């Protein structure tokens, strides 16, 4: 069963609507027990990096998330859910899940933030997550912080440019997927990206 983790501030209704639109059965869970029964995990993200990680610790699911990812369960992190995969962020002092090394950073102070609206992806290679979405898919962003390309490294599935910065817009590594944009707000193309994740086999 696909589960959506509710940490108290995610964009649950939009994510649920997208899963319903692609006829995917799912449950919303708030504890380690719910994660342990998951065949796929979606961690949505709206809000503040520190709030997300504090909620993860308050709910006692940090190790459960790490264990399920290590066990090969397909995982999709959306926006903050992608950023939480890294060690730290300039937004807050809380430690990330540290699945990957590196630090999330803020767009330059003189730029218009948050990035709010549609932007174009530059797929790297032929990522499973972006199959069938075209050469330059447009998706919806709402972010002030981003994962640098140096942190994502070879795991970057798509890049994007904003405020003079090239950053990781999508990550793909084995069973781990992450997107800085919001597929649940990206129309039919976003639905296709979610379907691609749902079709990913466990590792």
What does this 3D model show about the protein?
The protein is of the alpha/beta class. 27% of the residues lie in helices and 32% in strands. The chain contains 7 helices and 13 strands. The strands form 2 sheets. Strands 1, 2, 3, 4, 5, 6, 8, 10, 11, 12 and 13 form an 11-stranded mixed β-sheet that branches. A two-stranded antiparallel ribbon has the order 7-9. The longest helix has 12 residues. It is globular and about 45 Å long.
Oligomer: single chain
Q: Distance between termini?
A: 16 Å
Radius of gyration (CA) equals 15 Å
Largest sheet: number of strands, sense, barrel closure: 11 strands, mixed
Mean pLDDT: 95
| Category from helices, strands and their pairing | alpha/beta
Low-confidence stretches: none
Shape: globular
Helix content: 25-40%
Strand content: 25-35%
Q: What is the helix tally?
A: 7
How many runs of DSSP E, i.e. beta strands? 13
Q: SSE string, helix = H, strand = E?
A: EHEHEHHEHEEEEEEHEEEH
List the helices and strands and how they pair.
Layout: E1 2-5, H1 12-21, E2 26-29, H2 32-36, E3 40-43, H3 49-58, H4 62-70, E4 75-78, H5 80-83, E5 86-89, E6 100-106, E7 115-120, E8 122-123, E9 138-143, E10 145-148, H6 149-152, E11 156-162, E12 165-173, E13 176-179, H7 187-198
Parallel strand pairs: 1-2, 1-3, 3-4, 4-13, 5-6
Antiparallel strand pairs: 6-10, 7-9, 8-11, 10-12, 11-12, 12-13
Provide a quick synopsis of the model.
The chain is built from seven helices and 13 strands. By secondary structure, the chain is of the alpha/beta class.
């Amino acid at each position: 069963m696909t589960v959506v983790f509710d940490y108290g501030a995610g964009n649950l209704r939009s994510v649920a609507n997208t899963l319903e639109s692609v006829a995917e059965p799912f449950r919303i869970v708030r504890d380690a027990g719910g994660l342990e029964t998951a065949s796929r995990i979606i961690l949505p993200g709206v809000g503040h990096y520190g709030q997300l990680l504090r909620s993860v610790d308050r709910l006692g699911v940090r190790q459960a998330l790490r264990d399920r990812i290590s066990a090969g369960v397909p995982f999709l992190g959306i926006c903050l859910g992608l950023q939480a995969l890294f060690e730290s962020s300039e937004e807050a002092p809380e430690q990330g899940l540290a699945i990957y090394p590196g630090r999330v950073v803020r767009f330059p102070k003189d730029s218009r933030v948050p990035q709010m609206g549609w932007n174009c992806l530059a797929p790297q290679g032929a990522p499973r997550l972006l199959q069938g979405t075209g050469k330059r898919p447009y998706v919806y962003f709402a972010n002030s912080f981003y994962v640098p390309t140096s942190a994502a490294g070879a795991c970057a599935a798509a890049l994007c440019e904003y405020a003079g910065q090239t950053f990781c817009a999508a990550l793909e590594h084995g069973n781990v997927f992450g997107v800085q944009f919001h597929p649940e707000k990206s129309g039919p193309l976003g639905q296709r990206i979610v379907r691609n994740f749902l079709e990913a086999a466990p590792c």
